[in-house]
Amino acid sequence: MNYLSVETSEGLVKYYLAGTEKFKEITAIVESKYNNLGSTKWELLSEPTYNSILEDQVVTAIYKSSSPYLDHLDPIKVSRKYLLNKQHIYEKVYTLLTDIPSEFELPENSKALAKGYLLNIYGQPGDEDYSNYIDIYFSCTNHANVEAFAEKKLTVGSYSNYYCITFNGTTKERLKVKNYCFDTQNSLSNWDEYWTAECEDRNIDIST
Amino acid sequence: MVPYMIKPFTILATKDEPNFGTLVSYTISDRAYVDQEDYKGIQTSILTSGLLIPLGEDIDTYLLNYLIRSEWIKL
User: Fold this and answer.
1) Is there a domain that residue B51 lies in?
2) For chain B, how many structural domains are there in total?
3) pTM, whole model, 2 decimals?
4) Is residue B4 part of a domain?
5) Measuring CA to CA, which residue among B71, B69, B38 is closest to residue A41?
6) How far is B6 from chain A (nearest CA, A)?
């Protein structure tokens, strides 16, 4: 399986790995909207999907490695959001979490893994400030707890499930729940292992 | 440039050159995954150089456009 499925309030979104036919098709769509793209740096690409926060059809490109100008933020991953109609671009930074942030409420039995937020990079078209939208990525040992939070049934991956809640950073209001479901083990399906490796890289003690 | 933007380059120093403009010393880095016969992994490239910004030009805008044209900055 060469894709990752994400269930959001706007529907099901698939992300495709570099080298696949779908990846090439989506790259062609983005290239038709922008010049001077660095598409060789993309590892994973989403289908164009309506994003209610960015209010546009959006393709997300997850990078193989992060740009040096973001090093001071210590990202574990970086992606770019390509807004296909507005033709704006925003960078998204994902940073490691080792504790549940006290200001954001997660379902019971959750373990926070990462935080994501949008940035404006000088030279990228689009100057709206979306930094107040905070994504918290997490695992949860009880799928029903997340469904209760989302107030709807969520697809259950037969191999693994991970989740994300988008919060308003000021009001702490929950805006969106995203469900990352995997039916088989693949290079994208073990977030806990990835999280552990990132902690070890940073000499963070996770034994407790 | 709005205050919350992050610059993908760093200006190291500026020097006024009367009648010509401003000489800017800058640095920019790029990181990419390379898959070559002798090396497979992350490669960081660093450019440190200087550029004369003509009189009347905005330094950030001129340097940004220069780095886009020279393909150090891509979308």
Assistant:
1) yes
2) 1
3) 0.93
4) no
5) B71
6) 5
